[in-house]
Amino acid sequence: MTISFFSTQPYDQLFFEEFNADFGFTLRFYEVALSADTTNLVHDSEAVCVFVNDKLDANVMAQLASKGVKVVALRCAGFNNVDINAAKEHHIKVCRVPAYSPQAVAEHAVGLMLTLNRKIHKAYNRVREQNFSLNGLLGFDFYGKTVGVIGTGNIGRAFCKIMLGFGCKVKAYDVIANRDLEAIGVEYHPLVDILHEADIISLHCPLNEQTHHLINSETLQMTKQGCMLINTSRGALIDTPAVIDALKSGHLGYLGVDVYEQEEKLFFRDLSSNIIQDDVLTRLSGFPNVLITAHQGFFTREALTQIALVTLQNVKDLLKDGNLSNKGTLLA
Ligand code: NAI
Question: Would you give the DSSP letter of residue 193?
Fold first, then answer.
């Protein structure tokens, strides 16, 4: 049985080939993203394996079905890029890896916070140039500050616990409150209260119709002067031009993002010799109080191991009898 992988990088091949020894699939790796233009690469494949920026709309689903694809395996947690209804219509099973390492993403969010606050990226460069001055590197204590967490699922929960360890007040908003988190000191509040009270806001909810541009000019106005905004979830949770206005006016104090609304044209590639045509991203990169990483929150050895093992097991189970042994990963 064959799995065709799209949007692959050398590390995908490395981890999947290592763990496939126990599964015995034929693995085909394509660097290009899966879209209507690239489905022609799929042949004699029972399954395709995709990542965050592959676009699986109704047209792509129809083409995959016509080529005999039975399973779409997402090697990620988010699934906003897949038309689940179209998959059901074409009897294609869709699975994902819901919690390969929530800690990896939560820890990266904290890394963005610490770097922005204490300007570690600037200090690193200064010291390498024998500039030992501290001017311009002043930060603030996270201890005692209020951290607003939007979405307390797997990643949000891990993030809340780290923030409690820092001695922060953790206030959360989610459509469902988590009693275990409440028991250890996390307070749930309506979204507007979080926006008004938080010194730092970190987004950990999925991208859907309710959360699209959750951070916009209106909600930004409700945030505290100088607030720090962290987004490791999905780019379109943020209306980026509105965020740029808030940074220009000085209302938003810091921005740390691992995701970007237009990232599929840029991220996961070396474009260092290209002229970037995306003026919004280049404007964003020009602010001294903005830190952008290219969707690397998931990128730890532990997470890649889990992604490979769970994805291969998902495909094996779905091709065998349609039942998953990994609970909670079936979407269609
Ligand atoms: P999850 O499904 O465990 O948790 C999501 C939480 O958001 C749930 O508690 C849910 O009730 C809540 N939620 C849903 N709608 C909401 C709304 N309108 N307002 C507030 N909360 C809402 O997901 P998990 O694993 O914690 O991942 C969160 C997101 O992180 C994913 O959707 C994905 O987009 C992103 N992600 C980013 C990665 C990266 O490398 N940067 C890696 C993995 C995930």
Answer: H
End-to-end Cα spacing for the chain: 21
57 and 201 belong to one structural domain? no
pTM score: 0.93
Sheet arrangement for strand 71-74: 26-29, 2-5, 47-50, 71-74, 93-95
Structure-token match 């209306």, residue found: 239
Give residue 329's pLDDT.
78
Which tens digits make up the pLDDT trace of 250-264? 999 999 999 999 999
Closest C-alpha to 91, from 322, 317, 329, 315: 322
CA of 315 to the centre of ligand 1 (A): 23
CA of 109 to the centre of ligand 1 (A): 13
Same domain, 93 and 239: no
Q: How many domains does the chain have?
A: 2
The residue contributing the CA closest to ligand 1 atom 1 is 153
Amino acid at 191: L
- Ligand 1 mean position to 204 CA, how many Å? 5
Is 281 found in the same domain as 261? Answer: yes
Give catalytic residues, as residue numbers. Answer: 234, 263, 295
Phi/psi at 150 (5° precision): -100, 105
86 and 111, same domain (yes or no): no
224 and 134: one domain?
A: yes
What residues does ligand 1 touch, defined as CB less than 6 Å away? 77-78, 98-99, 102, 105, 150-156, 173-176, 204-207, 210-211, 232-234, 258-259, 295, 297-298
User: How many other CB atoms are there within 10 angstroms of residue 64's CB atom?
Assistant: 25
Which ranges of the chain have pLDDT less than 70? 327-328
CATH number at residue 45: 3.40.50.720
Domain membership of residue 276 as a residue range: 102-292
